[in-house]
Amino acid sequence: MNRDLMAYRKSYEKSFLEESDLPETPILLFSQWFKEVEEKGGVEETNAMTITTTGSDGFPKARIVLLKHFDDNGFVFYTNYNSEKGKAIAYNNKVCISFFWPNLERQVIVKGVVEKIDKQASLKYFRSRPRGSQIGALTSNQSEIIESRTELEKKLKSLEDEYHNKEIPMPESWGGYRIQPIEFEFWQGRPNRLHDRIRFFIKNEDWETVRLSP
After folding, report:
1. Which of helix, strand or coil describes residue 17?
2. Is-catalytic flag, 193?
3. In this structure, what are the phi and psi dihedrals at residue 183, rounded to the nearest 5 degrees?
4. Which residue out of 127, 149, 193, 197 is catalytically annotated?
5. Beta-carbon neighbour count of residue 209 at 10 Å?
6. What single-letter DSSP state applies at residue 133?
7. Are 22 and 209 spatial neighbours (Cβ–Cβ below 8 Å)?
8. At 13, phi and psi to the nearest 5?
């Protein structure tokens, strides 16, 4: 297999990012961008984000998860604590998340430190999920090796029968994480590859900004 992709070209011309337009905190700019991406349309899951962890083998690994809440305290997502990402977070709780929104030619990269959220908050979200998602969380020992798809589906059917007309318990190994940001980078595509890159970082407990060369 040999495929040449050098002819792929795109000119980024939809917006710009100037220092004069920056709010005091990066979460305000993130919220503004998130809303604009939603309103523009063309992105199925605006809240899809890539989270990169580093496991005990020393290798980074990136995968897509769904952002479920954000505020001044950080970014919240939910997963199985015993999954590969959960084990990596337990080993090293420094992570990176990123969002790519092609409809507005924007990217946001966030470095942060992870902590588990309160169990009651996790339970509240778990109860809000569709019943199928609840039973799915109970069915899957995420990231563990299984013999076949059939084995997984048999377990699902067994649990569906067991909890028919009953409340589905939240697995002890399932819940939320909060990523507390220490650095943001906002990337806005611009013509001639001279993109805008603005970094927010904490200095003396306040957010400061610098412009990065593209």
Report:
1. coil
2. yes
3. -160, 140
4. 193
5. 14
6. H
7. yes
8. -140, 15
